[in-house]
Amino acid sequence: MAVLEEYYDAVVIGAGHAGCEAALACARLGLETIVFTVSVESIAMMPCNPNIGGSSKGHLVREVDALGGEMGKNIDKTFIQSKMLNTSKGPSVHSLRAQADKRAYSQEMRHTMENTDKLTIRQAEVCKLLVDENNNINGVVTYSGAIYHCKCVVLATGTYLKARCIYGDISNETGPNGLQSATHLTDSLKELGIEMFRFKTGTPARVDKRSIDFSKMQEQKGDERVVPFSFTTDPESVQKDQVSCWLTYTNEQTHEIIRSNLDRSPLYSGVIHGTGPRYCPSIEDKVVRFADKDHHQVFIEPEGLYTNEMYLGGMSSSMPEDVQYEMYHTVAGLENVKIVRNAYAIEYDCINPRQLKPTLEFKKIGGLYSAGQFNGSSGYEEAAAQGIIAGINAALHVLKRQELVLDRSQAYIGVLIDDLVTKENHEPYRMMTSRAEYRLLLRQDNADLRLTAIGHEIGLISDERYQKLNDKKRQIDEEIKRLQTATIGTTPQVQAFLEQHNSTLLKSGMTLEELLKRPEICYNDLKEIDTKQPELPEAVTQQVEISIKYEGYIKRQLQQVEQFKKLEKKKLSLDFDYSQVPNLRKEAIQKLNEYQPASIGQASRISGVSPADVSVLLVYLNR
């Protein structure tokens, strides 16, 4: 029987946030690329929260953008509210978050994909991977039997593999939002010797806006001045009217209803077998684990301008629908709320990510890459970050160019991937600022300065954009030098200025740089006494101010990074038998043989490998 047979350079399986970035990267780097999705309506779908960014996640979006990805540009076109989080703290934890119009976000990304050269979108379920005699990927087979030959594959299946959605005793064999699950690919992966995990995540109910009493809630408005996600977006183009979100709280009555129905929760009755995310627990999980708390926050967020559906952030659940109604009705403002879509938990197959190299290629299967929730992570932003790296490296693999690995001192993306491939993850991984040791250097405001040159070298950043970056760097350097040499004296004008800003008066002259180091003085304040201050973009003056105010801390972190780099540069063979190393502890031998780290640095981050073991390895290498 004749079957359809086609040839591509790259195949991407899945068109969620990881798949979109992977497919766009491959196509933009010149590969004939086909992306498979269970439904073209689900391209860049947001099955859970209606926002992009947030604490540490905003860093990832900025980094994806700096490398030449699409997520930042896409949310800038489709957001309905924007907020910079953590502004009361230092710049290393400032993080942008934008509420998205879900449908517009998905449609805009689909429009971009459909109009990208060398990119084909195909609605079909991939059920088998094909490898040659050397264990290199060379094609995929769809459920219809069609064969698509290729040179590389990126797996970005999200939460669709053998997915089932559960609330109470109701279990549907579907993917998110009731879409068809992918039931066949898991078996093919297991046949290839890939180790699989079963994870779970969940989502809260969507409710009818008309049935909410907002007078009992606190209004949460967006920022007056919107900061765009993408470094290419004109800040003036995103200043617009914004939609409000709302804050309310659970109470003891809510918690009592949950406690008295725990036996009906599939989470506690044994119906759910997958491991859920620790840092984004369901409301029943919160009530059990934080029994001392008498209330929890609930954020009421619009799903978009096109709909009355509102998302109940913070009240994810898999309780039966009668219990869902009962508990939601106890929350202030939700007493008469009507549910449009039930909350549910979703179980799905994913991989043990320790089977991957830091490039996101499988150690044992050449040309097969993996990204997103399929790697045991959670979140749209983590998915997009892995997607662009997997796509870049799949393309560089085909083009026979050196692949990209970002380390922990270069990017949050480097921290994310290093954590996934070196640490034991028994639950969906979530990015947090506390995971990044060098977070003062890895701020969201300087992602372009850190990564755009890399994106340009790869081929995803245009010459024009790269030139703009170099102009920005030049302006920053010139202004810092000017402030280091410009001096002020003890004139009445200067003393009055200092008095006005509650700052110590001068006894002798000082440079503007020294004055700017004072916490109560901002760069823009200096205009009053600095007659030669040039007109510079806000993005430039922000870098100038941070560089000067945090100079001592930044220098200290740079010294730490130097030490870190020394260990990263000491490479290890990926098929070495560590039992040959004398004086290594048994646990270290077992872990090192299991993980096969790429460098001494990576070896040092494996749980069970002590600093003493690292010293033994260094001595052995030096011999």
Description of the structure:
The strands form six sheets. A six-stranded antiparallel β-sheet has the order 16-17-18-19-15-20, with no helix packed on it. A five-stranded parallel β-sheet has the order 7-3-2-11-22, covered by helices on one side. Strands 1-10-9-8 form a four-stranded mixed β-sheet. It has 623 residues and is α+β, with helices and mostly antiparallel strands. It is globular.
| Average pLDDT for all residues | 94
For the biggest sheet, the summary is: 6 strands, antiparallel
Radius of gyration: 26 Å
User: How many β-strand runs?
Assistant: 24
Fraction of residues in H or I helices: 25-40%
Strand order of the largest sheet: 16-17-18-19-15-20
Low-confidence stretches: none
Give the termini separation: 62 Å
Shape: globular
Label the structural class.
alpha+beta
Percent of residues in β-strands: 15-25%
User: What's the tally of helices?
Assistant: 20
